[in-house]
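Your task:
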Amino acid sequence: MITIGVIGTAKNTGKTTTLSFLMKGFHNSGSNLAVTGIGYDGEEVDNITLLPKPRLYFEKDTIIATSEQCLKNSEANYELIAETSVDTPLGKVFIVRITKPGMIVLAGPNRMVALKEIIELIKTEAGCDVLLVDGSLNRMSPMTILDKLVFTTGASRSVNIKKLANEMLLIEKIFSFPLTNYTNIDPNISFFFKVENGKTIIKKLHLDLNNSPAIETQISNDVKALYISSLLSVQDFNDIIKKIKKNIGESKVELIIHSPIMLLLSGDFSLISIMLERMSYAGINLTYLQKPELSAVTINPFYPKLENYHYTPSYVDKEAFESEMVSVLESPVYNIKEGDNQKFFEALTDY
């Protein structure tokens, strides 16, 4: 089963439209499709702009993992496939098969271990070919374990298309760093790798960022790599970079973090960009323990414009927006509502 996450960089960037396009494509291709979401999303009207939002319509035989309360309030009919141990503010998550098409709100797992459970149940109990996962920048941490990711961006995040292109270029750069070659890493414990008597050994790293001397005594010039298991802020990363530079000097060292998603969650994009430059200058090679594939970017020229104390639909120049994104990114870029989007679907079904 292939797992694909769709991550919205902000509200109204086209995430639901992208999900709906993929759902329709997989349904029409005869694939056995499952869908879930990270946390809760799916209000009919945007809570801030009061503009209508697109909703997800599920065809017959689609497998859904969502909360008990969402199922009770749904327009669709369904049959139970499996009950999970995952609890949400809207009740326990159930896996169901749609027997009568209709709208359903997704409210799924917000932790990686919970998403793992749902993926395994969908594999074993429903035998699906594809799982689509609905997410966003502020709730994407569990999506580390997925196979492929699609980012959606648009004018509702910023009407400055050059800024949007540069943000996606940074995301692309973050996903470009390779997987580590080190093995036998416990993903829950920080380690450092050093050479003793000509052999590489693993030692636990006591990562107390409030105790600089303690960390510095562990990071010496015979350290070859560090694995950081925890989610750090940009400032935390900068502190570690300084300690590595001070204690290791000109030697190259590998800094391993769990996934590019952890880096994306570390702080503001502009601060992450500066931090990556500092890391490169310090001779630090960044690698990951786990990495989904950044498969595509979709764009949405729409944005809600505030006029006379209320919001109205507005748009940036769609041709200029797409041209700027295509010229900057190596990843394929699609406007879901324009052009030949069959290529987008084919790119994600190349498995």
Observations:
- The domain at 191-288 is CATH 3.40.50 (Rossmann fold).
- Residues 45-53 have pLDDT under 50 and may be disordered.
- The chain has ten helices and 20 strands.
